[in-house]
Amino acid sequence: MNESAFGLNLIRGDYTGFFTISVKEIILLSLFFFLSAQLSAQTATAPGNASDPDAGTVTNPYQIANLNNLYWIAATDAVVSSPDRAARWAAHYIQTADIDASATSGWFSNEGWSPIGNSTLAFTGTYDGQHNSISNLFINRPSSNEIGLFGKIDGQSTQKVVIQNLSLVNVNITGNREIGALVGLADQFNDIINCHVSGSVKGNNNTGGLVGWGRRTDFLRCSSSANVEVNTTAVLYHGGLIGHINTTSTVRESFATGNVSGRGRVGGLIGAIGWNSLVENSYATGSVKSNVANPMIGGLIGEVWNARVRKSYSTGEIIMTGITSDYGGLVGNKTTDNNFGDEDNFWDTQTSGLSVSEMGTGKTTSEMKNVATFTSTATTGLTNPWDFVGNPNDDTGSDNIWNIDPAVNDGYPFLTWQSFDTPVVYYSRQNGNWDVATTWSTTSCGGSAATNSPGNGDNVILCDGHIVSVTTQITNESSITVQTGGELHVNSVGILTTEGSISSSGEIRIRSGGLFNNQTGTPVDIIAERDLVTAGWSYLSSPVSDVNLGDFLSPVWTQGLTGNSGSGNSEFGDPNVFRWDNSFDENEPSGWDAVLDLNSTMEPAEGFLVAVFEASEFGGSADLPHELSVAGTEHADVSITTNNQVGGWTFIGNPYATAISFDELRGTTGITDAVYVWTPGGGGDQATDEENYDEPFEAGSWATYTVSSGAGNLTGGLIAPFQAFFVENESGSSIGLTFNNDVKSSDTPTDWFKQAPRDVIRLELAGQGMSNSAWLSFSQSGTTDQRISGDAWQLEPMSSDYALLATIRWKASYLYPW
């Protein structure tokens, strides 16, 4: 326990007050066991034809019409005793309607959907989606294997498992290994046909947008636009469509457009293929990212090991940090001992950023959009022409697998089975919400109401005099134009991601809590707001450029500073706005430098410490929330340099109007894998006389996150707009950190402080209105050192009064980073 954690004395106007009150005694010390119970909100309902004598057979498959029917398949025998799980997982199914699986986010203590089939008992039946969809499927089981709608499927040579004609829309799936939205592990004798995925998939080994690992499995006309990410520091097999295939598996007429980040064997379509497998007439366009020295990374496939690739291409950017070998525009590494083939494959050297590859032939962007590249035998790298509609040049095929059109698929070849919606122009016709059809017209500004709201690929125009509000999660892949007099508002629960183009001569306003993820590469003028709802020490930064610090802080009381622009703010007293000295080689309060003049411009990604009081004027009543509002141009790419001392701390801020991912920001740089954010605790009311002036801020708390373990209460390592944070150097030299589109995220933190249930003992200290708890359990890998592998320092609170349970080790595990 410590009497003065922060050690800064504040003088409010002409009065002096020291925010230091000692905890004189411990009121309560309690020790008890913390027990947890699994909450369940799911209901299993038998399909409508379940009572038929032949239900579940090939001739009369079970009919799945809703989420309760779907859960009936997955449920344990304790939930559905007859037929038992073994019988249900060997049966045949058809889906008769679209299913919204949003409710799965609250199932099983927020772990979400429980997969059909596992390592003990695989699914051996069939499932035909009949061209229906399952949307918003949620799984958060980061320690579990074989995760997806189906965990494990396993057929026989005499009876294959067939999953077909199904779309999974906007999935959110996290697991350990063998992770895919549709299937985690497709083990033997399986056909996956005409299945499609969008959303987000995260996992360690063998992770793909559609399927994690396929062995002796055939894929036909499948696709994924899901982004695929490594969950921790595992090193193998991440692919946009499939993580890994081997043992004579095939992938035909399939594609992936999502971005992929992994460690080793990372590919835009598949992480690795081997053992006489085949990829044919397929493509990938998403970016591919890795940050290990020899990752085997490729735009199409990371590693080809004794396998064949035919008539396929890739265009995605290859993003590499510290990579010295095993990379390529199409394929990163190959083994050619047996059954190897490299036939008529290409990659775009300009969009990939690479002129080398272990396989295929590199072409310029214009060449990749020219049908002659793929059909004229005069083309370098082409022996057998691809099969295009109309048989151009030397093409003599009759299956019409490919087509090309400058207005479709960005001008690159596409598969003829693909459908492309022609963009529709939507004009605002009145004030309203983006997702409401009557807000829009497809004819003109103010015209007759549309029958639908804009889709992802539609062009949107906000007309003069209209305010359109984003109140849900919206992605636009085409164009947004805000005309003079038009206003686009992203409200407190709204998320707008722009991936095409955006321009504005009107107003784009991001309300407090809203997220604006501009991925177009062109910054626009915005007004960004943040409500300071709690008094206390706050870490702040600006999401736009060229902001005057005094204007930025005008809604809050500031003092001891010249250049104050806020009404009634004082130049007298001790300052309450501070910068951290990023060259400071200790971790004590003297690292904070008072800002003596507010008439200065905030630097990109610069963080500030501000004491925020309940009232915005001295002697006034509490008037929270205080609304910060800044107008200006979004920051583009921002680079900063960290403290160059081992154990040195750097204080930086989120420079964007959307969340940023600490995982992406850190990469493999020389900073530890932990990030620290202070959350204020309230108090510090505005005094009206000297007697009651010195009420302190209440204790706040640190929110932390570690990349390697995913542990901590800063959910997902996401840093909110306007939020500043601390990182720690471990290299002994200055490190460059770059903020760009890759670090931006459209995810928002949820369920703070919610951890997986476990057997623990809870200790609590409480006294004088303060408390602190610790949960204790035995660990076989315990250590007295702070390590990169999943640990973060226990930092002393910012407030002057607190109760704290910690192991004290001077300048090791007990730090003063302020």
Determine the N-to-C terminus distance.
Answer: 18 Å
What is Rg? 29 Å
- What percent of residues are in strands? 35-45%
Overall tally of domains = 3
Helix content percent band: under 10%
Structural class: mainly beta
Morphology: globular
At the first level of CATH, the class of the largest domain is: Mainly Beta
Q: Spans of 5+ residues with little confidence (pLDDT < 50)?
A: 1-40, 686-694, 750-760, 777-789, 807-818
Write the layout of secondary structure elements.
Blueprint lengths: L9 E3 L2 E3 L10 E7 L27 E3 L2 H8 L10 H4 L3 E4 L3 E2 L25 E10 L2 E3 L4 E3 L2 E4 L7 E14 L2 E3 L3 E4 L3 E14 L3 E2 L2 E5 L1 E4 L2 E2 L2 E4 L7 E2 L2 E5 L3 E3 L2 E2 L3 E2 L4 E2 L2 E5 L3 E3 L2 E2 L3 E3 L6 E2 L2 E5 L2 E3 L2 E2 L3 E3 L6 E2 L2 E5 L5 E3 L2 E3 H4 L8 E3 L1 H4 L3 H4 L26 E2 L10 E2 L9 E4 L3 E2 L6 E2 L17 E4 L4 E4 L2 E4 L2 E4 L4 E4 L4 E4 L2 E4 L2 E4 L4 E4 L6 E8 L3 E5 L8 H4 L24 E4 L11 E3 L13 E5 L13 E8 L4 E4 L7 E5 L5 E3 H5 L7 E6 L21 E6 L11 E2 L4 E5 L7 E4 L4 E2 L14 E8 L2 E7 L17 E2 L18 E2 L3
Parallel strand pairs: 4-5, 5-7, 6-7, 7-11, 8-11, 9-12, 10-13, 11-14, 13-16, 14-17, 14-18, 14-19, 15-20, 16-21, 17-22, 18-23, 19-24, 20-25, 21-26, 22-27, 23-28, 24-29, 25-30, 26-31, 27-32, 28-33, 29-34, 30-35, 31-36, 32-37, 33-38, 38-39, 42-45, 43-46, 45-48, 46-49, 47-50, 48-51, 49-52, 50-53, ...
Antiparallel strand pairs: 1-2, 3-69, 40-41, 42-44, 54-59, 55-58, 56-57, 56-58, 60-67, 61-66, 62-65, 62-68, 63-64, 69-70
